[in-house]
Amino acid sequence: MDNHLYTVAQVRAIEEAACAGLPPGTLMRRAGDAAARFALELLGERRDKPVLVLAGPGNNGGDALEVAANLADSGVDATVLFQPGQREISDEAQSAHERARSGTVGFIDMLPPSGDWGLVVDGLFGIGLARPIEGDYREMVEAVNAMRCPVLALDVPSGLDADTGAVIGPGGVAVRATHTITFLGDKSGLHTLDGRDSAGHVRVEMLGVSPELLPPPSARLGTAELFAHRLAARRHNSHKGSFGDVAVLGGAHGMAGAPVLAARGALYGGAGRVFVAMLDSGPGYDSVQPELMFRTADGFDFTGRTLVIGPGMGDSAGAMRLLARALDSDSPLLVDADAINLIGASPDLLARLAGRGAPSVLTPHPLEAARLLGQSTGVIQADRLAAAREIALRTRATVILKGSGSVIAQPDGALVINPTGNAGLATAGSGDVLAGICGALLAQAWPAGEAAIGAAWIHGAAADLLVAHGIGPIGMTAGELPAAARAVLNLLVAEVS
Ligand SMILES: NC(=O)C1=CN([C@@H]2O[C@H](COP(=O)(O)OP(=O)(O)OC[C@H]3O[C@@H](n4cnc5c(N)ncnc54)[C@H](OP(=O)(O)O)[C@@H]3O)[C@@H](O)[C@H]2O)[C@@H](O)CC1
Ligand SMILES: [K+]
């Protein structure tokens, strides 16, 4: 399947199984062929420009040498900087080296101070990188990152942990590629944390391996197909009661903006009616969105309503009571922001969450996740998939761990990485809008898992749509997201109808 993600350990197992039935070096030659074809595509009209190929000490370097030989065979001026280590290189890499040496590939010992490269091919390290990149290798990575030309990473951008998306440290560096061709299965680390910045556009090349050799994926990349069956054109004969009520619970004194943004997200996400139940008396209405109905949280009836709790809620005793009441309710519940922090500080609230019968979704950012697990943010970000899965297991809720490549974890351990969105979402209030959109999908009877995957995808796609229209990423505001999310949602519905 296109969206399957594998761990490095799984890819090693796939490699072993595939190699068993093939003559030695076959996979490396196939990798070199596919990557050279991709390189030629990237060069396009600029085939007369020289290509710099960096080849490291392992089989990633072997792939690079195959690419160089192939490019030279295609008439491209390919220059290799081959930096083997102390260890002997593998037989396959040795063959690739001999092949490159026997053709027209040029070899250099150090990078020239400047060069007008049409493309750089990064074959320094792949999935075998075991420690931070240092010394000469580090200088090469830094030099590549200062170049302006396209950079094609082989398998994994050198320096990146293919499982976690973290730059291998401490104090490590990673290539920032414009494109990555990854072999024998897509890898989670290319799509979360630093992965998206490092890998650029990812192409998956299975090297002709039979699908029967593939294990069940460790995670999946989010796609609209994962929730498309929930999208349906609206019947003419429908009314506002047909699409559910969302009530956003929050809004302590001076913090009305967050629940209002969440409520707008819910409204544009298609909820039939949206309430804002404020802890503080706050505003009586939203002049931009007068469709929203304002109430006081005290005594607000939850019956038959989907609840989005936490935006701007604070940590007062009243907030705790409201949260306890929401957790004990039978309503579908989305827990965000301050409500997550309160749960992180209270084993009692955590137990109430874990014991819920109705659908629950939690949307922590990394700091909120850290509070929930009693860890540092660094620990969370070092393995976002593991952190999201752990929170889902402890809370028995669906979790969206936000950040570049949001990770959606289900209580049964299933993981999805959301591929949409951009840096424009790194702005105050965008999480509130996500909470509102997810609340709207829950209110329209989507199960928690699909609501979370769908909301993250739609929210990110909304940001992508805004960027496509020149609105962001710089200066994109959360308030611009709801209408864009509505456009995305309607486009999706039109596609499936
Ligand atoms: N898997 C597959 O199916 C296929 C794999 N293929 C390709 O092979 C790649 C995996 O190859 P790999 O195992 O040789 O690992 P790779 O990433 O080249 O580096 C390991 C080398 O680096 C060294 N080293 C490590 N860290 C270091 C550091 N910080 N600084 C310096 N040195 C360091 C380490 O030696 P060490 O010093 O640790 O003893 C070792 O020599 C994979 O990503 C894909 O591109 C394809 O051919 C198709 C089929
Ligand atoms: K690489």
From TrEMBL:
<keyword id="KW-0521">NADP</keyword>
<feature type="binding site">
    <location>
        <position position="432"/>
    </location>
    <ligand>
        <name>(6S)-NADPHX</name>
    </ligand>
</feature>
<comment type="similarity">
    <text>In the N-terminal section; belongs to the NnrE/AIBP family.</text>
</comment>
<keyword id="KW-0630">Potassium</keyword>
<keyword id="KW-0511">Multifunctional enzyme</keyword>
<dbReference type="InterPro" id="IPR000631">
    <property type="entry name" value="CARKD"/>
</dbReference>
<dbReference type="InterPro" id="IPR004443">
    <property type="entry name" value="YjeF_N_dom"/>
</dbReference>
<feature type="binding site">
    <location>
        <position position="137"/>
    </location>
    <ligand>
        <name>(6S)-NADPHX</name>
    </ligand>
</feature>
<feature type="binding site">
    <location>
        <begin position="126"/>
        <end position="132"/>
    </location>
    <ligand>
        <name>(6S)-NADPHX</name>
    </ligand>
</feature>
<dbReference type="InterPro" id="IPR030677">
    <property type="entry name" value="Nnr"/>
</dbReference>
<dbReference type="InterPro" id="IPR029056">
    <property type="entry name" value="Ribokinase-like"/>
</dbReference>
<feature type="domain" description="YjeF N-terminal">
    <location>
        <begin position="11"/>
        <end position="215"/>
    </location>
</feature>
<feature type="binding site">
    <location>
        <position position="122"/>
    </location>
    <ligand>
        <name>K(+)</name>
    </ligand>
</feature>
<comment type="subunit">
    <text>Homotetramer.</text>
</comment>
<keyword id="KW-0456">Lyase</keyword>
<feature type="binding site">
    <location>
        <position position="258"/>
    </location>
    <ligand>
        <name>(6S)-NADPHX</name>
    </ligand>
</feature>
<dbReference type="InterPro" id="IPR036652">
    <property type="entry name" value="YjeF_N_dom_sf"/>
</dbReference>
<feature type="binding site">
    <location>
        <position position="431"/>
    </location>
    <ligand>
        <name>AMP</name>
    </ligand>
</feature>
<dbReference type="Pfam" id="PF03853">
    <property type="entry name" value="YjeF_N"/>
</dbReference>
<comment type="function">
    <text>Catalyzes the dehydration of the S-form of NAD(P)HX at the expense of ADP, which is converted to AMP. Together with NAD(P)HX epimerase, which catalyzes the epimerization of the S- and R-forms, the enzyme allows the repair of both epimers of NAD(P)HX, a damaged form of NAD(P)H that is a result of enzymatic or heat-dependent hydration.</text>
</comment>
<feature type="binding site">
    <location>
        <begin position="402"/>
        <end position="406"/>
    </location>
    <ligand>
        <name>AMP</name>
    </ligand>
</feature>
<feature type="binding site">
    <location>
        <begin position="59"/>
        <end position="63"/>
    </location>
    <ligand>
        <name>(6S)-NADPHX</name>
    </ligand>
</feature>
<feature type="binding site">
    <location>
        <position position="155"/>
    </location>
    <ligand>
        <name>(6S)-NADPHX</name>
    </ligand>
</feature>
<feature type="binding site">
    <location>
        <position position="60"/>
    </location>
    <ligand>
        <name>K(+)</name>
    </ligand>
</feature>
<protein>
    <recommendedName>
        <fullName>Bifunctional NAD(P)H-hydrate repair enzyme</fullName>
        <ecNumber>4.2.1.136</ecNumber>
        <ecNumber>5.1.99.6</ecNumber>
    </recommendedName>
</protein>
<feature type="domain" description="YjeF C-terminal">
    <location>
        <begin position="223"/>
        <end position="492"/>
    </location>
</feature>
<keyword id="KW-0479">Metal-binding</keyword>
<keyword id="KW-0520">NAD</keyword>
<comment type="similarity">
    <text>In the C-terminal section; belongs to the NnrD/CARKD family.</text>
</comment>
<comment type="function">
    <text>Bifunctional enzyme that catalyzes the epimerization of the S- and R-forms of NAD(P)HX and the dehydration of the S-form of NAD(P)HX at the expense of ADP, which is converted to AMP. This allows the repair of both epimers of NAD(P)HX, a damaged form of NAD(P)H that is a result of enzymatic or heat-dependent hydration.</text>
</comment>
<keyword id="KW-0067">ATP-binding</keyword>
<keyword id="KW-0547">Nucleotide-binding</keyword>
<feature type="binding site">
    <location>
        <position position="312"/>
    </location>
    <ligand>
        <name>(6S)-NADPHX</name>
    </ligand>
</feature>
<keyword id="KW-0413">Isomerase</keyword>
<feature type="binding site">
    <location>
        <position position="365"/>
    </location>
    <ligand>
        <name>(6S)-NADPHX</name>
    </ligand>
</feature>
<dbReference type="Pfam" id="PF01256">
    <property type="entry name" value="Carb_kinase"/>
</dbReference>
<feature type="binding site">
    <location>
        <position position="158"/>
    </location>
    <ligand>
        <name>K(+)</name>
    </ligand>
</feature>
